Amino acid sequence: MGLIKKKICLLGAFAVGKTSLTERFVYGRFEEKYLTTVGVKISQKIVPPVQAPGGGRMVQHMFLIWDIAGLEKFDHVADNYFRGAAGGLAVADLTRPETIEDLQRFCTRFRSVNPEAKLILIGNKLDLFDDDRGPLARLRGLAREYASDFMLTSAKSGVRVEEAFLGLSRTIEGFS
Predict the structure, then answer these.
(1) Domains identified in the chain and CATH numbers
(2) Residue 26 and residue 56: Cα distance in Å, rounded?
């Protein structure tokens, strides 16, 4: 089993937790103090191997994770940022429903550059969420629209963060 490099993009509005998800996944840490991403930050991590259902072939990815400041500021470079990506995590802040609405714009732009790229929609900040069914229904609807899965995560507590990246790895290989 060889190591396969895959470019992954994090999509979403300003302050939804893209950097925190990456920090939690790559380094196993969470920074309470908010740090704004300036430009693009690229991290890498070898993802645990994933196996096709029924004991089929096994694959291991090295993710090159591209995290960019909220794309509102960098709209003119978005196509270059997205180019060549195998997949993306489209992140919304569950406590700010307008960021779920923003996902449609980010996902549409991402797919226009990479029609075959896989997406997983993420509702982040589960630790702060009050279980309002409206945002969950909208997130579920967007996931259907983009033929993708969706997950609820918390970068702060680590809940389902690794599962989100592993899910993307399986989806990229067509295992899910």
Answers:
(1) 3-172 (3.40.50.300)
(2) 27
